[in-house]
Amino acid sequence: MSPSLQRKIVLVARPEGEIKDSDFRLEEGELPETQPGQVRIRNVYLSIDPAIRGWLNASAGYVEPIAVGDVIRSAAIGQIAESKHEDYPEGTWVSGLMGWEEYSTLSPQHTLRKIPEKPGVPRSYYAGVLGGNGLTAYLGLTFVGKPKTGETVVVSAAAGGVGSLVGQIAKLQGCRVIGITSSEVKARWITEELGFDAAIRYRDEDVVKELKANCPKGIDVYFDNVGGMILNDVLTRINVGSRIVLCGAISQINESELPPGPSNYIRLLTKRASMQGFVTLDYAKQWPEAAKELAQWVRSGKLLVRETRRHGLEQAPAALRSLFLGENMGKSLVQICEE
Amino acid sequence: MSPSLQRKIVLVARPEGEIKDSDFRLEEGELPETQPGQVRIRNVYLSIDPAIRGWLNASAGYVEPIAVGDVIRSAAIGQIAESKHEDYPEGTWVSGLMGWEEYSTLSPQHTLRKIPEKPGVPRSYYAGVLGGNGLTAYLGLTFVGKPKTGETVVVSAAAGGVGSLVGQIAKLQGCRVIGITSSEVKARWITEELGFDAAIRYRDEDVVKELKANCPKGIDVYFDNVGGMILNDVLTRINVGSRIVLCGAISQINESELPPGPSNYIRLLTKRASMQGFVTLDYAKQWPEAAKELAQWVRSGKLLVRETRRHGLEQAPAALRSLFLGENMGKSLVQICEE
After folding, report:
1. Which of B275, B282, B283 to mutate to test the interface with A (most CBs of A within 10 A)?
2. A160 or A328, greater pLDDT
3. What's the pLDDT score for residue B256?
4. Residue B277: which of A232, A272, A282 has the nearest Cβ?
């Protein structure tokens, strides 16, 4: 039986700029009754994604903002602890959009995906490579980036949960792959372990110069997770007919005023290139196919996965902040209880 | 027989910022011999296009810059005065890439298109609606903008040689069309004569506010001839899945340093929209189909054409400068001799 009280983290104030501890509060509160048609999920892994920072703003883009006073919305992995829905019996493992809370009580429709009973990989992978990150990398690269064998693909936030997969998938498709990342240790991970052809450390190196040296045939696909100056630098080296996938703008998501746009966007004109925004929601039909191929690659060892895992619900705000400090490697998770 | 001397306008110095009279020189020089395989064309109409300003820069984008000392390259309409090429007999009217000069001596391949003997429209139209402007408007709108019936299309430089056609073609396709232009007289022309649904005068009106009022369902296609702040304003109102056609950046072409880019480009991400550069060269296969449909529309009166015509070769630099001052209405031409 599940308890009647739970801990949860709620939004106290909309952050201006970087998030602070005082923007959040850890509360203890009563669990709502599980209504007919609902399930109660015991959350185990919270998926810490840059998108959460966007949802904290008053205008959140393509989804509703999180209301002040509400629990922080978050993708998560959990197990059904109490069920009043016949398709989701107790004990079922699921992934979905839950919250920074010990238990989420909700109606499963449109929200939950079941995790196989014996997945053959850690269940937490369903919050990363076999969840949103994997779909984002696979669908954005395949359907917007459209890389062809032999082309040059550049990806930013290359050691992150999405970027590390984008680069590996592009390698599987026979591309030359350059990753842009922050630190030496990340640069070594993506080149030595993940097989990227080169890494550029944007904090220590001249990005334009390094792009020139490492992309002798120019850039055909840029998978942009960061926006800002790096996007502007990449625009200097794009090829005729190249494709820029706008997947995130982690460098700008904390800004309350929009910084100047990329002045080199004008090269889209001379290079007849495209820059296109992308969210996985628009490719729901392709999810099953993508999920199947990603799972095969993971099981066969073609796609390597790394997790940065913190322990304890109270770590979630720090984990989120850490995404924007470049401290994170691979998929960021908060584990809030044992499986 | 054609003469042995001709007048021409050459580039004296690469302009910095706005063009000045001293960047050009009117020269008299000897006509080169017409070699076997070549023709000599008596130029009648010079097509004055913003692209010429780009060619004056050291880095001209997707074509070679004009060298200092060389004649100014220009699309033009002329008649063959002397021929050493059997496919182009004397008297044939042609359009092509010629120069600001009385006679152009060249090899016809890849350059010249013949104009029908009895075109049924003014021959000068082959420099505009039935030439580069028409192809640009038709192909850019059709293949990059992809408007659907009932959608909202916005076009900038809406009273210009390209913009005035884009808006009319979008109306023929059943769209709501809003034109952004400079003056009251232009605003009245495009709404009262060309059938645009509304005009926004960017010098006198709040563009964001007017876009909001005039595009109640948001913007599905933006055909961008100007770049800069207007692009940034349009980005505030784009719909999910919208398409921005980058066709020109007349507001930036005079700048020697790139101005800040559009900070609202980030809305491409939240709106899963695309921004794509476009030049007609990439759609050569579709030229005949486009030219045929444009000619039908012009002859049946569905597409209205207006020309701003100056007289005398020496007027060419002023005509070019005038494009950037918003003084121009419809297609800008310099007629350098009688037909």
Report:
1. B275
2. A160
3. 62
4. A272
